[in-house]
Specification:
With 616 residues, this protein is of the alpha/beta class. It is built from 21 helices and 21 strands. The radius of gyration is 24 Å and the shape is globular.
């Protein structure tokens, strides 16, 4: 039984293939198109899923779309009618888009798949597998529960909005998922957080993690103001927004003038300076988010008595809130879908088809069924060497042991390495497949990586990848965190006490103070977003970190995604080499090929080089 799940036409389009209930392949369209958060039909992602198993559309039993577009259309109509006559321009723009492609989505999907089938098999008869539609939050819930290591759990989904639901609770048991309750649009914790993302000058649907990273630089001064004016939070965690302060339901902006008057300033322009005001706002909305998540978790545990929890939806990527939830010990165990956003809903849709529509039983993997999220394309040493020779890129081919030992020495000397290894990760996190790595003990590493490699804001923290068995020696974390979705404090014996002058620093001035013996991965509040690495899920990445530990005694390295600001994570060796050549990375590792920047040909003309050497 082969089922293809897709998400498309909103943001983060993706495709996923499930075979006999086993998660086989999954990827976001952005990785192939190189358009960040690409919302178009995921032609290239679908093609990858099929080609990874050497199959065609005629081999697929069913295609499942991740939501029901007519219900979303109903929500838009009802919302705009309720707001009329306000929101007219936004309504016209939305209707133009819907009438062009979204309202007749079934026909559009058939058209896209027919074109793809003709491209893949030009001489075969036209064929389209059975087309099914899931629901948005059901797809989230399925993506969280079915790959989880639990036979029974609560499933909590929190995002901006699906068709109508913004927050929903479910019970997963065996191969069934049953709804408990939901909170409906326009009352949304995801959209509330996005409103502050917008107000602080970041891009909605991609800048929320920047707001989370900014929060530790501020003080939660505006918590009471948010509670008293913007949101009414009940004791059980359910909530209602005062919609007069927002415009996301009837306009092109997230916040209204009433919101701006409440906080005394207009929204920050993206190119203007971040001030303490914005840091304090970030800290305040983070506190509110954590309060809601923890209250919802407590009430669900009390209501059901179920001891396990799964999380999905965009809010589940708030790893600070996840860390606080874990620390509360409300549940015996928590599992979070690593591709919690809409991309992961493609996988959820396929699993809904398999378990709910076809009613086929489920096998529970005691660790989980996500295979470390290494579900994307991979490339052989032969393919990589062939490409490098074609573009005249000097390289050295080394066996694993020699490669890891040499990299340990080079990392120890302060070099920054582009690490391209195995299958590409599914979801927003780089987990040792497409990563940029460095020495966490180096006090300059965060500055170098942010400004010379990633070309991004200096306040952004970097994550540690730590050997699983040594995580508790470095961080206040006893649980596994293979997907970098939990934040915990750095161990006190590794932390450095601040001087009196350092303690008095405010805002971004805190950035340049080394807070621990692994300063490059220690945020200003002594926290870190941790990835624990095991030999079972990524043996080469494990062996690299282990080689670094043997040389330095440190079982941790810096890990950030292999991309620059504004671009998706690299997918192919071509993407990796292009990124390497256009940044100040020192080294590039493509499987067993080691490239030194100093040995590479000099780029005289960037445009010409892009055409000649970034080969498809």
């Amino acid at each position: 039984m082969k089922i293809l799940g897709i998400s498309a036409f909103y943001h983060d389009s993706a495709a996923a293939l499930v075979v006999d209930g086993d998660v086989i392949a999954a990827a976001q369209e952005e990785r192939f198109s190189r358009i960040k958060h690409d919302s178009s039909f995921p032609t290239k992602a679908v093609r990858f899923c099929l080609e990874s198993q050497k199959i065609n559309l005629k081999d697929i039993d069913s295609i499942v779309y991740y939501e029901k577009p007519l219900l979303t259309f109903e929500r838009l109509l009802e919302t705009y009618l309720a707001a009329a006559p306000r929101g007219g321009r936004s309504f016209i723009a939305a209707m133009q888009l819907w009438l062009k492609e979204k309202l007749f989505l079934k026909s559009e999907l058939k058209k896209q798949f027919s074109a793809l089938q003709k491209e893949l098999s030009p001489n075969s008869k036209p064929y389209l597998p059975q087309l099914l539609f899931s629901e948005h939050h059901l797809s989230h819930a399925a993506a969280a529960f079915y790959p989880s290591p639990f036979n029974e759990s609560i499933v909590l989904c929190m995002d901006g909005v699906g068709e109508w639901a913004t927050t929903s609770a479910w019970i997963g048991k065996g191969s069934k998922i049953q709804p408990l309750w939901e909170i409906s649009f326009p009352h949304s914790i995801g959209l509330l957080y996005s409103a502050f993302t917008y107000y602080c000058g970041f891009k909605v649907n991609s800048g929320e993690y920047k707001l989370m990273g900014l929060a530790p630089y501020g003080q939660p001064k505006y918590v009471d103001k948010i509670r008293n004016h913007l949101i009414d939070i009940k004791e059980d965690g359910t909530f209602r927004l005062d919609i007069r302060y927002f415009k996301y339901h009837r306009g092109f902006r997230m916040t209204s003038n009433k919101f701006h008057r409440l906080f005394g300033k207009p929204p920050r322009k993206s190119d203007s300076k971040l001030t303490q005001f914005h840091m304090d706002l970030a800290a305040s909305i983070q506190v509110i988010t954590e309060e809601i998540v923890i209250k919802l978790a407590k009430s669900l545990k009390k209501e059901t008595g179920i001891s396990k929890l799964c999380l999905a939806g965009g809010v589940a990527l708030n790893c600070v809130a996840n860390g606080k939830l874990l620390k509360e010990k409300i549940f015996e165990d928590i599992w979070i879908q690593p591709a919690s956003g809409d991309a992961g809903s493609a996988l959820g849709a396929a699993l809904v088809g398999f378990h709910q529509y076809f009613e086929i039983g489920r096998k529970v993997n005691p660790k989980d069924s996500m295979k470390g999220t290494y579900l994307g394309p991979n490339y052989t040493n032969k393919e990589i060497a062939c490409y490098l020779k074609k573009v005249n890129a000097p390289f050295h081919t080394l066996e694993d042991d020699e490669l890891f030992e040499r990299l340990a020495v080079l990392l120890d000397s302060g070099m920054v390495v582009g690490w391209f290894n195995g299958a590409m990760e599914f979801g927003p996190r780089a987990l040792g497949g497409r990563s940029i790595i460095g020495d966490p003990r180096n006090e300059n590493m965060q500055h170098v990586m942010n400004l010379k490699i990633k070309y991004r804001e200096s306040f952004r923290p970097f994550a540690p990848s730590v050997l699983e068995d040594y995580a508790s020696t470095q961080f206040e974390l006893k649980e596994r965190s293979p997907y970098m979705l939990l934040v915990a404090k750095v161990k006190k014996d590794l932390c450095k006490k601040m001087t009196e002058d350092e303690d008095k620093l405010f805002g971004i001035d805190k950035l340049n103070v080394a807070r621990s013996s692994i300063p490059a991965v220690t945020h200003v509040d002594y926290s870190a977003r941790i990835q624990t690495v095991s030999k079972e899920t990524n043996p080469r990445y494990f062996n690299l970190i282990n080689a670094f530990k043997k040389r330095t005694g440190c079982p941790t390295i810096v890990n950030t995604s292999f991309n620059v600001r504004g671009e998706p994570i690299v997918c192919t060796p071509q993407d990796a080499y292009r990124c390497f050549m256009r940044t100040e990375m020192d080294l590039l590792v493509l499987e067993n090929q080691l490239l030194y920047k100093e040995e590479q040909p000099k780029i005289e003309n960037d445009e010409t080089w892009m055409q000649e050497f970034a080969l498809d």
